Amino acid sequence: MTPDGVSAHRAGPDGMAPPAEGETRLWLARHGETEWSRTGRHTGRTDIPLTDRGREQAGKLGDRLRAERFVAIRSSPLSRARETLEIARPGEPYELDDDLRERDYGVAEGITTAELREEQPGWNSWTTPTQDAETIDEVGARVDGAIARARAAGDAHGGGDVLVVAHGHLLRILAARWLEQPAAFGAQLVLGTAAYSVLGSERERPALVRWNVGG
C-alpha cells in the first residue's frame, strides 16, 4: 500500500510496465452490449440497460483488469456505464462525471446508419451535420474537461492509473484529444463493447499504450 492507503500498481498479465513516477495514465473502458448497440442504433443520452451478453462482457472486462490497481475511477452517469463498472469492479468507489456522457445525436438518436442513409445517402455521424446533435468539436471541448479532471484525480495521488468508464464515440474522441489531435480523429479509432484501452506517454509525448483490448 502507498502511504495514503491506495494500492500500488502491479503490472498486468500482459507484462505492461507501471506508469513512470508521477505519471497519470488513463485506462478507458467502454460499456458492455446494449440492445441498441447490438442492432447498430445510435445511442446517446437514452438510458439503455445492458443485455445479458453485455453483463457477461462486463464480467470478462473485470477479469482482464483484475491485476490492475487504480488510484481513481470515473464513470459516465448513464446506467450502461455504471452497471459495467459495478460488475467489473464490484464494491470499488467511483465518481460520476457528466462530461463522460455519450454524444447527443439529436434526431439520429435510436436510428441506424443504414436507415439514415435511406433518406440522406452518404450520411456519416462524424461528418454530416445532424439536427439537434452535438457537433464532434463540441464533444471534444467537453472531453477536454473530463481529461483534466481525470488527470487531476491521478495527480492528487502523485500519479498512477485512473479508470474511465464511458461510451464508444465519447471515448474515441477522448483518445483523440489526449493525443492532441482534432476530435474527428476519433473516427479512425475502432472501439468494441467492453474493450479497454490505455492512454499514457512515450518520451514525454502523449501516446496510445494499448487500444481496443478485448474488442
Description of the structure:
- With 215 residues, the protein is an alpha/beta fold.
- It has one domain (24-213): Phosphoglycerate mutase-like (Rossmann fold, 3-Layer(aba) Sandwich), CATH 3.40.50.
- 31% of the residues lie in helices and 17% in strands.
- It contains six helices and six strands; from the N terminus they run E-H-H-E-H-E-H-H-E-H-E-E.
- It has helices spanning 35-38, 52-65, 79-88, 113-119, 136-155, 168-178; strands spanning 24-30, 72-75, 95-96, 160-166, 196-202, 205-213.
- Strands 3-2-4-1-5-6 form a six-stranded mixed β-sheet.
- A hairpin with a 2-residue loop joins strand 5 and strand 6 (205-213).
- Helix 2 (52-65) crosses helix 3 (79-88) and helix 5 crosses helix 6 (168-178).
- The radius of gyration is 17 Å and the shape is globular.
- It starts with 23 loop residues before the first strand and ends with a strand.
- The model is unreliable at 1-11 (pLDDT under 50).
Secondary-structure map:
Layout: E1 24-30, H1 35-38, H2 52-65, E2 72-75, H3 79-88, E3 95-96, H4 113-119, H5 136-155, E4 160-166, H6 168-178, E5 196-202, E6 205-213
Parallel strand pairs: 1-4, 2-3, 2-4
Antiparallel strand pairs: 1-5, 5-6
Task: Describe this structure in a few short sentences.
Residues 1-11 have low confidence and may be disordered. The protein has helices spanning 35-38, 52-65, 79-88, 113-119, 136-155, 168-178, and strands at residues 24-30, 72-75, 95-96, 160-166, 196-202, 205-213. Helix content is 31%, strand content 17%.
CATH superfamily, please?
Answer: Phosphoglycerate mutase-like
Oligomer: single chain
- Known CATH architecture: 3-Layer(aba) Sandwich
Question: Can you identify the CATH class?
Answer: Alpha Beta
Give the low-confidence spans: 1-11
Number of distinct beta strands: 6
